[in-house]
Amino acid sequence: MSAQQNKAIARQFCQQTWGKGNLAIVDELAHPDFKLYYPILSGTLDRESFKSWLVDTHTAFPDLQFTITDAIAEEDKVVISWTAQGTHKGQIKLLNLAPTQKSVSWTGIIIYRIAEGKVIEERGEEDALGFLQQLGLIPAS
Q1: Neighbouring-strand partners of residue 103
Q2: In 15-127, which ranges are continuous DSSP H helix?
Q3: Which pTM was predicted?
Q4: What Å distances lie between residue 52 and 55, 69, 78, 99, CA to CA?
Q5: Burial state string for 30-40 with b = 16 or more CB within 10 A and e = fewer than 16
Q6: Labelling 108: which of 38, 61, 117, 132 has CA 20 to 30 A away?
Q7: Whether CATH 3.10.450.50 fits 3-134
Q8: In terms of DSSP bridges, do strands 103-115 and 65-74 run parallel, antiparallel, or are they unpaired?
Q9: What letter would DSSP give residue 124?
Q10: What are the structural domain ranges in the chain?
């Protein structure tokens, strides 16, 4: 597939998962061997555990606003930068965070790898420190 086709797949996957919490898109666009890596997590997620984290995230932030700010593609890789904001109204089970009722905004970058027209890998990095500081879980310096 071309870099532009991969970019379209990654944008759709990102917007539908993180932006909308659409679990069906994971079954549609995630490769059976899909793996997700984020430093904030204690391990790697597969397709099913990723879906659980999506439900968790959209339950914790029912007013989540997720915006893709840029996308760059080369060969089988697509890099997406994003911003998010929402109010922490529910527990984030995967991170063991009770609701704080605080509004937060944070940014991040995802590197997708596309194989056979499917997302096979998602590697993300977000402003976890700023996120946790805004929630009042880590003191701001």
Answers
A1: 87
A2: 24-29, 47-60
A3: 0.93
A4: 5, 25, 24, 18
A5: bbeebbbebee
A6: 117
A7: yes
A8: unpaired
A9: E
A10: 3-134
Q: How many residues can be counted in the chain? A: 141
Q: Give CA separation, 67 vs 11, 76, 119, in Å.
A: 11, 23, 19
Contacts of residue 134, Cβ cutoff 8 Å, sequence gap at least 6: 102, 103, 104, 105, 106
CA distance linking residue 137 with residue 134, whole number of Å: 8
Residue holding tokens 């659409």?
Answer: 22
CA neighbours within 13 Å on the CB side: how many for 56? 14
